[in-house]
């Protein structure tokens, strides 16, 4: 091999080596940025049975304010079947029923058809509660829910405060007092009354919209507690739902049943930003993990909605198409 050819090959190898180092450094920097803690507190409020139609047609000044001051999508999607247990599990587990195995409201930890792909401490698929607990051992974690069956979907050992009030009003009041008193790292609030209105009176009925307006009042109460606790400037609030509905039920495959609102508000969130990209139920837990700078379990399939955060953009050739 001639000298000049050998020198050229050496130069090429050096260039490849430099580019490799730059590439590895870039990946490392990106990973470091993804694991940067952006907020001190996260509050997720889930409204059972809340549809985008409900927010469109009811009077909701508190929801409207958070949408204006934050990022949102009215075209997020739950998973099939559009049952409560399946979608609440998906919301907190960062994965769908194919992974976590919760395929119906009849699911029990020791009585189910499809086993989870992986199991955590209490023989269930790992939830965001356990992820926070393990990676932030000093974190205060609270769950307040007025649908009793929600309590079987997460690891009891992972939370510090676990309470099941009897009504939505009591749930909001309890959650507000907890937030003011403990200033928790992660709070999850479940409100069930909208779903009751949907089943009794029908989605799209006047009574249904009234229940959404009650939810708006309860949201205002919880947001006021965040303010009183001095947490507003360092908190991410996420609002969403498990499913929508059709006539007096849900569980089917219509757009009205599977489409849900997704709203983000707080530190580092873009203002008055309509998320143009696809948003899924399992992205909720991933976004919580992102905001708290935590590693996501490999078994999760959810992705953090980084496009909603200031300083982040994504290259997406497939924006949401508005359905008529």
Automatic annotation (TrEMBL):
GO molecular function, one term: hydrolase activity
One Pfam family, short name: Phosphodiest
InterPro entries in the record: Alkaline_phosphatase_core_sf (IPR017850), Phosphodiest/P_Trfase (IPR002591)
Protein name: Type I phosphodiesterase / nucleotide pyrophosphatase
């Amino acid at each position: 091999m001639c000298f000049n050819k050998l020198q050229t090959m050496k130069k090429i190898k050096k260039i490849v080596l430099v580019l490799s180092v730059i590439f590895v450094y870039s990946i490392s920097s990106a990973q470091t940025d993804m694991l940067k803690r952006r907020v001190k507190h996260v509050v997720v409020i889930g409204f059972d049975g809340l549809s985008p139609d409900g927010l469109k047609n009811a009077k909701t000044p508190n929801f409207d304010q958070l949408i204006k001051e934050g990022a949102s999508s009215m075209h997020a999607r739950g998973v099939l079947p559009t049952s409560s247990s399946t979608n609440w599990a998906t919301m907190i587990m960062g994965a769908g029923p194919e992974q976590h195995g919760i395929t119906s409201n009849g699911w029990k930890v020791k009585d189910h058809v499809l086993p989870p792909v992986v199991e955590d401490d209490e023989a269930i698929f790992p939830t965001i509660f356990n992820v926070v607990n393990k990676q932030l051992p000093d974190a205060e974690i609270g769950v307040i829910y007025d649908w009793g069956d929600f309590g079987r979907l997460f690891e009891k050992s992972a939370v510090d405060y676990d309470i099941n009030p009897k009504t939505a009003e009591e749930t909001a009041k309890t959650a507000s007092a907890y937030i003011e008193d403990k200033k928790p790292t992660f709070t999850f609030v479940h409100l069930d009354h909208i779903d009751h209105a949907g089943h009794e009176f029908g989605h799209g009925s006047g009574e249904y919209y009234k229940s959404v307006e009650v939810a708006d009042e309860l949201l205002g109460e919880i947001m006021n507690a965040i303010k009183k606790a001095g947490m507003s400037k360092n908190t991410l609030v996420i609002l969403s739902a498990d499913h929508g509905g059709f006539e007096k039920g849900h569980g089917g495959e219509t757009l009205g049943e599977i489409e849900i609102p997704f709203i983000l508000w707080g530190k580092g969130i873009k203002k008055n930003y309509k998320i143009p990209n696809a948003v899924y139920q399992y992205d909720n837990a991933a976004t919580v993990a992102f905001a708290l700078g935590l590693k996501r379990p490999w078994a999760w399939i959810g992705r953090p909605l980084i496009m909603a955060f200031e300083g982040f953009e994504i290259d997406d050739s497939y924006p949401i198409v508005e359905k008529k």
